């Protein structure tokens, strides 16, 4: 690296980063912006090869423009994600791998529920999928509330065991 640029970098990096932090309120984003700014300046040797260093105002203008571009890009990405979400094309903010893992867990959970004894399966589905209270389930199936609670407890225990085994083995 050119010694003159290295000196310029060492003198100005903390100032530019501090400026970026004040606007972005994020040290990581400020770090990224500051690195981008100095990479851009490195490609413009006419600015830093002269004995007189770059006009500090110009340095802050470049930084400010990088920050505005970052914020504009994030705003566009957010609007695009919101649009996809509204259209039902975006399940969650997670990446593809996380979505696949979530779907696998869902399939495993549903398979576990389907293998439960009929009464337990019925009670669990009424509780979790239909949103019925334990009292409503007990009245509907003519069971005691305590029996309904016990079936839900056992169903949740089975699901926890299966998911525990999946995570740790």
Shape estimate: rod-shaped
**Largest sheet features:** none
**Straight-line N-to-C gap:** 50 Å
Rg from Cα: 29 Å
Give the strand content: under 5%
Which residues sit in consecutive blocks of at least 5 with pLDDT less than 50? none
The helix tally amounts to 8
Structure notes:
- The protein is mainly alpha-helical and 169 residues long.
- It is 80% helix and 0% strand.
- The protein has 8 helices and no strands.
- It has helices at residues 3-24, 27-42, 45-48, 56-86, 96-114, 118-128, 134-141, 145-168.
- The protein is rod-shaped, with a radius of gyration of 29 Å.
- The relative contact order is 0.06.
Produce the secondary structure layout.
Elements (H helix, E strand, L loop, with lengths): L2 H22 L2 H16 L2 H4 L7 H31 L9 H19 L3 H11 L5 H8 L3 H24 L1
Main attributes of the structure:
mainly alpha, 8 helices, rod-shaped, 169 residues
Q: What would you say about this model in short?
A:
The chain is an all-alpha fold and 169 residues long. α5 packs across α8 (145-168) and α6 crosses α8 (145-168).
